[in-house]
Specification:
about 375 residues, mainly alpha, 2 domains, 15 helices, 3 strands, about 0% strand, disordered C terminus
């Protein structure tokens, strides 16, 4: 068993190994690929959303040089396509291609023009959230030029112009257009963080409209989806749901979506579905276990955090990597390593062992880890509502 092999490693060693794997996905430009650059599935491309999640591990580890390089590249992308943002602000887009795209060339920063679920409002909200977190919480200067400040202000206005709170998008999974709670929540979190941590103005009604939509949707992901793993983002990293909503989301995810090798995204998911008819054999996503471990550690539930961290460790394949997913009830995996999965695993390991003894999960002897070794943490207290 992979987990038994990992017992001989300290958490610090394991974190370093997986940070190194994650670092190997970063292009010279600063952008991260979703998976290996030569991936046959197209996962060598950088996604806005994946870059946000991949950077979270480096924030936790205190490697802000790596994070800063990525966010500078993201800002360069928006500046290159500022004309498109201007057009969307002037007139609400009527076609998918008029929205900010989800994927960009790692060196030229050009859009990939394939027909894609390009309406992904959560990706824009996520980047705003990341910028604000770096500027405000970590005191890492990202917005240094007038152009960078200008384009971030335009991203705020862009979300207002498209009316993200009532504009159907393809969501985190780039599929059918609906009003997704996870997308609306990402935008609410991003706008709220920008308003709190920077001097960029954010009209109150941009946030209030999103909060109203969430109040009508939660704990559902959408009208068609009762539960979706994407809802976990509203708990971590965004922390924008009340405790009762948080608990209901967790209960639904664990009861309806948890499988042996991961968490399915939602019931009836056709992506890498093992059955020819696309039903009942949903792929099992590895980062779900790490995600739940992170959340339970934030809630102070050590036993549950440990339980899911152990499950996450068992998803490490024979190459020492964490893939995107496993086919249902099998050891067959694809897209290895997935940067998003590696990042969530690093955060789960770091956060658990920051509070508890390093040997508690890995089986290694307790060792003293300095504050410098631990780095900073993204943890924030749950809101009392």
């Amino acid at each position: 068993m992979i987990f038994l092999k990992k017992q001989k490693l300290s958490f610090k060693t394991l974190v370093e190994q997986h940070l190194e794997i994650l670092k190997g996905l970063q292009y010279d430009s600063g952008l991260f690929a979703a998976s290996k650059a030569d991936s046959s599935t197209g996962y060598g491309k950088p996604w806005l959303r994946d870059n946000f999640y991949e950077c979270l591990a480096f924030m936790v580890a205190g490697d802000f040089e790596t994070v800063r390089k990525t966010y500078k590249a993201l800002l360069a992308i928006f500046l290159k396509h500022e004309y498109k943002i201007d057009h969307a602000i002037k007139k609400k887009p009527e076609h998918k291609h008029q929205y900010i795209h989800a994927r960009f060339h790692p060196h030229t920063f050009d859009e990939y023009w394939e027909d894609w679920g390009n309406k992904q409002h959560d990706a824009v909200g996520a980047i705003l959230f990341g910028i604000a977190l770096l500027e405000g919480k970590y005191k890492v200067k990202i917005l240094e030029t007038e152009g960078e400040k200008r384009v971030v202000k335009k991203l705020v206005d862009y979300l207002g112009s498209i009316m993200y709170w009532c504009d159907p998008d393809s969501g985190m999974w780039e599929e059918n257009e609906e009003i997704h709670a996870s997308s609306v929540g990402a935008c609410v979190a991003g706008l709220s963080a920008i308003k709190k941590y920077t001097d960029i103005p954010v009209p109150d009604h941009y946030i209030e409209a999103g909060e109203k939509t969430l109040a009508g949707l939660l704990p559902r992901e959408s009208k068609k989806k009762f539960v979706d793993i994407a809802l976990l983002s509203l708990i971590y990293p965004y922390d924008i749901v009340a405790p009762a909503q948080r608990d209901e989301i967790l209960t639904n995810v664990e009861y309806h979506l948890e499988k042996k090798k991961g968490i399915i995204r939602y019931k009836g998911d056709h992506y890498y579905n093992k059955n020819p008819d696309g039903h009942s054999e949903e792929a099992e996503w590895t980062f779900g276990f790490s995600w739940l471990s992170i959340i339970y550690e934030l809630m102070g539930k050590k036993a549950k955090a440990k339980e899911y961290l152990k499950k996450a460790m068992r998803t490490i394949n024979e190459n020492g990597e964490i893939p995107e997913l496993y086919f249902s009830n099998s050891d067959k995996f694809v897209n290895s390593p997935l940067g998003w999965s590696e990042s969530m695993f690093v955060i789960a390991l770091h956060n658990f062992n920051e509070k508890h003894i390093p040997g508690d999960v890995s089986g290694a002897k307790k060792q003293n880890v300095s504050a410098k070794d631990r780095g900073s943490s993204l943890k924030t207290p749950m809101k009392k509502k």
